[in-house]
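Troubleshooting: if your tokenizer reports a length mismatch, compare against these two reference records.
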Amino acid sequence: MLVSPSNPTAGRVIQAPRLESPGVPEAPFVGQPAPLFALPDADMEIFDLASALASHHVVLYFYPRDNTPGCTRQAIDFSDHDGDFARERCIVVGVSPDDCLTHADFRDHHGLSVQLLSDEDYEVCKLYNVWRSQEVDGVMKQGVRRSTFIISCDGVLQHVLHDVNPRGHAAEVFKLVQQLNTRKFNANRQEHGRHA
């Protein structure tokens, strides 16, 4: 269930803006503000993206299901890099349609430190346009497109990666976050130099 972020009436479902045409919603792209949301995590605590962005960059990754080989590898790799991301002032958050209890079992079984969010109604998946029809063994099925969004602390999408390979993905994302911080550091130095 998608709940209203930073709202005293949290727990209410908020609807994404309706489109004029019934087509597929446009995917958020680099340079746009990241769509805000709040979802429950494995401990049934609400994660509010707007609050997290107040002090951190956020790596938001969408994955199909807990306990599949690729999803497990991806979650373990992100967890193994947890300290590296923390040093870069970055939080890693995984989203799938699994419920909170399934996330808790998945986290505890594999010793994961990455925060896992439950999007049982697919609302955030749809908001980020990763809930897609795909052909599996000749049959069209709905599912999550494995995707990662890197959001800077000013709330802007810096990188959008779709159809990622779980192997080595966490290290690739970490390099992009480091580059983001290096760019911001250099921009601040140039700005400071102009005012000195």
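Reference record two:
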Amino acid sequence: MKTKLNGILTLLLALVVQVAFAQQTVTGKVTDADGGLLGAVVSVKGGSANATTDFDGNYSIQAGPEDTLVFTYSGYDTVSILVGNQTVINTAMKAGLDTVVIQAYRTTTKATSNVASTTVTGEDTKDRPNASIIQRLQGQIPGLNVQTGSGQPGSNSTIQLRGPSSILGNTEPLILVDGVPVDEDVFRSFNPNDIESTTVLKDAAGTAIYGNRGANGVIILTTKSGGFNSPLKVSYTGTTSFSELIDNDYDLYDAKGYLRLEQSQNAGLGATLTDAEIEAFGVNTDWQDVFYQTGVSQSHNLSLSSGSKNASQFTSINYTDQEGTILNSSLKRFSLRNNITGKSENGRFRYGTNVYMGYSKNASQTEPDNDRSNFIYFNSLFGANNALPYLDPATYDPNIYIPYFQGLANFPFVLIDNTTQNRNTEDELKMIIGANAEYDINDEFTLRYRIGVDYQSVVGLRANPPTSALSRIRGGANLEGDQSETYLRDFRFNSNLNLGWKKKFGQGEESEKKHTVIANAYLEYVKGHLKQFGYNQNGLDPRTFAFGDGSGYLTDGTANDIYVPTVFAGKNTAGLFSYFGEVDYDYDEKYGFTATLRRDASYRFTGDNKYGTFYSVAGRWNLHKEDFLKDSEVINVLKLRASYGVTGNDRLGGGYYAAASNTRQLFATFTGYNDTQTFVRGGTIANPDLKWETVSTLNLGVEFQMFDNKLRGTLDVYDRNTEDLFFSQFISGINGAYSTTANLGDMYNRGVELGLSYDLVQRVEDDDFYATVFGNLAYNKNEVTFVDLPDGRQDNSASGTVVEVGHQLNEYFVVPYRGVNPANGNLLFEDINGNLTENITSEDRRHTGKDSNPDFQGGFGANVGYKNFFLETQFSFMTGISRFDTNLDAYFDPTNIGTYQVTSAFDRAWTPTNRVTDVPAIAATNLTANGINTDRFLTDSDFLRLRFVQIGYNFPTELTNEIFLTSGRIYVNAENLLTFSKWNGSDPERPSNVSGNNFPTPRTISVGIDLNF
């Protein structure tokens, strides 16, 4: 027994000695972007040992080789590092996204930020079926208006922040990806899953430092990166989606009803049929079922991240195949990203590279880049909306094409032929490449250099093969057919050199000094080169023709060859040179002040007008740091902000390269009298006095957190004035043109923005239930305050709008419609004196107080979780929007009877026996209203939409440990699930300049899985 006891004690002693010898002293330094981090906690995972860093960030702790050190600091992401055989472990901690504020060319913290900004994390935009990161932002950021005019996969969106600031100039924000300025209209080849966060800078304090490019706000997309001292992490996300057309509310005829209408009007097929034949008619086609489909899509995303002591990397690969809801519409995308960060051993030199390459193929039947929305032989959507219900698509025969052109009503058969035979594609290669390096010259001065390239190459192919019905009827014996190809190359370069200085002042140790001054001087150069060319070939040989291949081009071998292709070519350049600086002062994270000054030179203007000077000043006061609020049990954070500044806009015409010739008179060659070569004035009449638009913004803001940080919110009030608006100035026609561009107007946007979130049940790791509600609301009032025109008004009769002093931009200016005259069935209107009349003139038009820009907009939703289940909802809404319903207008046009679909409301049209009705007589004599715009089809487009809903399940830890996963989840998403609106069409949120026969945004249901290894 004694022997056994001695043996056990010996084993215990050996174990104790082994453990004692295994323990070792580990030392190191914890830093952030600004240097040593005071007060960071270093602990042994699962143990009791812990240490706290001193004011230089140094620490010392006892740990064994198999222990894991956990580094934590309030507001920073937690870092875990296996000790192994290391006795010195240094780590750099990264501030969490809820703490970091991206402020133009640098980052700061929420406590020391002076700008009005909103940040949306990648968690708020990931796993959505929409292919565009920009469209995923709708309803999530106060004051940001994202409207998409097409459901074509990968289509562009119209973006406005705090209302329209220009009439003829650019109104969309500057967008940067990892600091690289990019084309705001090209995101179909960009992978949204790479986004770590999206920050929107709204006031002059955040945008003035961007000078000429910050007039409409700034959107900063930051992509994911790896962390130092991090093991390899592998993540996979896969989704499968199903998209469908959202039903419209137009009341249209079925086949029998339409035939009865034709019979009564002695038009079309119905005029040749008896009542019995109509009753026995067996065809009833819903042409939306013919041209629309359920779009099936898939997306796969694989990412890898890792980091060593002095380097980290993030790599992602994405494949997306998105099928549109219109036949033969699709987007296929493949992308690759690699982000690298690194530093020297002593941390004084730091660098990073961001390389993104995306390739996409976009196929369309609606030609989104061409104005063919109402071309009956080219747009499938026109057929879906307007084809006659008694036509049978089963009778389509590709070999019998001539009858399809003998009656206009047969146009849907031509569209079926086009859908099966024609091709309209764009292949895009998109590259966004950025690099940055910085070196600490000493403890105060840092030298930084950033470089970026945004490159886009697009090859377009549009072809009507010679076998198509349209080609054969046009070409006859000449075997026509046509093919067009276009090539575009866009290279944009950005270079920025920065010298920064940071200094702390005050008494005592470094950590006790309360005064901090930051100063930065910058030198920036921007250059863009655009090259494009193309051709159109008429005449294709069906025996050798292949899409995109030139072997089938016809020629008749004569001097007057009718098959000679037409060609075009062009190039543009753009350039900016800027120098600017900023100064930031902070006192103990209590008071702060920032000032920026920037001088820009634009290639668009001449002489002294090419230079613009822009500036901003901003200040803040963190009241919760004051003694009278420091111990408050209600208020946790309360910050007041104020800023004022001036930015500029040189982008006349909106495009990056647009309108470079407005200040310089250019000429082009032309064919003159008797076919002689001559030259003519190109473009508009030059105006060398043209100069910058300037936008001045005053912003007052409040940020607060209350009730143990359960309630969080921001409130901003702004006054935004645009002066020297780009506008068309009328000139005598003797100049060969009737207008030129000048600085002729002023306009303002004023508004309020509110963002709130509240934790109904705060999320605690061990709790089973959590619930957070959130919402944002923005109001904007727009008004033109000055227009230098002869009568103070620009009348846009085609759109029914005007630009006039004292009214909002593009306010509808029309004659009120007042119903039907019971005496004769004609339309009744209200003249300028308030009298009812059947005959109106342009003098009877008036302001309506309505336009196409929202007065109120925003979003709201909730995040709820119970055990491993989670639910997320997001609604978006807009009010104060009005648009002409061009589809409804066409459906009420009696001249379409027998050719196109019309409204079934004609059943209650005025007749001598039905005098009290809301539908005019089919034979009314004033249906065209003398060509004058009325508000008969001006419709409210306010909407509330369930933009996104997701329900899912997180894999329990017990399961992930069994199958070698760190974490995982499955989920079901729905986008645009429900829409509430008075708008009759499928999509109430389209921009006003989009025709009624464009591709509507679909409803999408998707299922997905996220796996992390």
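Descriptive notes for reference record two:
- Residues 1-5, 7-21, 367-373 have pLDDT under 50 and may be disordered.
- The two ends are 51 Å apart (CA to CA).
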